[in-house]
Design brief:
Blueprint (H helix, E strand, L loop, with lengths): L3 E4 L4 E9 L5 E9 L3 H17 L10 H11 L8
Antiparallel strand pairs: 1-2, 2-3
Amino acid sequence: MRGNITRRGKSSWRLKFEVAGQDGKRQTRYVTVRCGSRQEAQKALTALLAERDKGTLPEPSQWTIAAYARETLDVAKDLSPKT
């Protein structure tokens, strides 16, 4: 599948494309980009598809900033209390 581009607002676009999941099933990914024209959104979609084909597309994460900070501070024992 090549992908799909949908206008979300005056200058934002939703990119939809599929990747192979770990279990071999297809997974649909959605990415919102903020750019002016459809051509710029097409370039962003092409870049995402190229990353997917090379295998360098990062996996989405459900981590929040608070959870990441908590984990980092728990692991780092040599930080000062002000950190």
